[in-house]
Amino acid sequence: MTNTIDDITQDSDVIFLIGSNPEEAHPVLGMQIRKAVENGTRLIVVDPRDIKLTKHADIHLKLKPGTNVALINGIIHVIIEEGLYDEKFISERSEGDGFEELKELVKDYTPEKVSKICHVDSGDLISAAKMYAKAGAAPIIYCLGVTEHSTGTEGVMSLSNMAMVCGKLGRPGCGVNPIRGQNNVQGACDMGALPTDFPGYQKVANPDVLAKFEKAWGTKLNPNVGTKATECFPKMISGDIKGLFIFGEDPMRTDPDTNHVIKALTSLDFLVVDELFMTETAKYADVILPGRSYAEKEGTFSNTERRVQRVRKAVEIAGDTKPDTWIFTEIMNRMGYDQPHLTPAQIMDEIASVTPSFAGISHERLDSEEVAGRGLQWPCTAPDHPGTPIMHVGKFSRGLGHYNIAGYKESVEMPDEEYPFILMTGRILEHYNACAMTDKTPGINEIANSSFIEINTKDALKLGISDGDKVKVSSRRAQIESTARVSDKTSEGETWMPFHFQDGNSNWLTIAALDSIAKAPEYKVCAINIKRA
């Protein structure tokens, strides 16, 4: 996030919420957004479903799934046509040629055209554009409903264009704010869990960066960019990847096209899984290493607002489990790279020594009275640096802001006669992702413990399906059974399922199409058929 949670929920005039259902997927933040609205903040919701927050919204743009880029380009079109863009910010803080190119692109995205593509009211589109542009402070908040598309990265870039055109970056109550999908996703990315990056987003492709890390780590490093996680599965099938170490992931439940995942995992010569529980993926492992939970280890997590916070060991458990860092260090040692076993505090000191944005962060400082309980937000560049609540104040790290020009492209798999419905997937309040932990709780399972699919009332009538009926749901990849929930939460021709439940996991159906840049799967759009079981 460019800003803080308190900042965007307490200091904003308008919240632009797109592709996110925070009251269910991020309930603490969802509650804060609802409170902000109750205190007078206006709310624009962009979502294909009627989520709970739409009841509190001034405008709900109930767009067709997969059309985010067209919608945002349409909003920018209105902002420019109405003269609501921030000329001073554009001229002083952004690349002028890029703005002219963007202006040319969005000229074609008239409210009438966007209305047809996105299935939204053109008047609502114009009102939303004016409300956002005229607001003194307005954050953009987004989540996986923007990123989990074959054009997901372009959707994020379009949102950045929109914020920059209105000068709503580097200011309180503004910014472009992704809500991270899981605990410490931010921290994992910060620490170089990307094949393109070393810690702190220092690029593998930069020879100076490579030389720095070779010197710090005392070894020769591979100068080539690696393979993104979702690209590993085809390489397992082709034999390019023969061994895999999976650490705290359950792709058998969470990755698209489960048959494709099974084929990939069974193609491996050797699979190691480091886990807390016997997950569906762990059942395929040659070796299972017993993992430790957050309560059994020391270290830090970085939350969605870049806040680095201490995690302290709270419990001891029986058995011979080892900390993650011990496991990784031992593997390095046994593969011939001699490494000492460092404490979590020593590892944090090493991170600070090679990562400029973390240079001022240490366990000692995080444990001190100065920051205890609140942590530090990176960039934190020196031991006396207070951290950075709002990014891009005064200037961007790259200098002038860059506009990324992207036109609308359809999703990879669209409905047809054989598979006439769009399927979207997501989470519900009661359960979390693969249910590795939440389905161990009897009270939660009493509330929600089985698969369902949301179907529009008119579609259900045509199909002869009533609320609560068992249905067969099929795609080009698989068929599952589920239970129909009939309502108008989704539009005609559109359906929605959670991916938590093994009795009818939607990921048997989803398509393994990937975003061309980030390689995130297109979980939010695939074509299905529905029949009464």
Question: Could you please describe the fold and organization of this structure?
Answer:
By secondary structure, this protein is an alpha/beta fold. It has 20 helices and 19 strands. The strands form five sheets. A six-stranded mixed barrel has the order 14-18-15-17-16-19. It has a five-stranded parallel sheet with strand order 3-2-1-4-5, with helices on both faces. A hairpin with a 4-residue loop joins β16 and β17. α4 (68-81) crosses α8, α4 runs parallel beside α10 (152-165) and α13 packs across α15 (258-267). The chain is globular and about 65 Å long.
Q: How would you classify the helix and strand content by structural class?
A: alpha/beta
Assess the beta-strand content as a share of residues: 15-25%
Helix content: 25-40%
- The residue ranges in which pLDDT falls below 50 over 5 or more consecutive positions are none
Count of helical segments? 20
Mean pLDDT: 94
Principal-axis shape equals globular
Strands of the biggest beta sheet: in what spatial order?
14-18-15-17-16-19
Largest sheet: 6 strands, mixed, barrel
Count of DSSP E strands?
19
- First CA to last CA: what distance? 45 Å
Integer-rounded radius of gyration: 24 Å
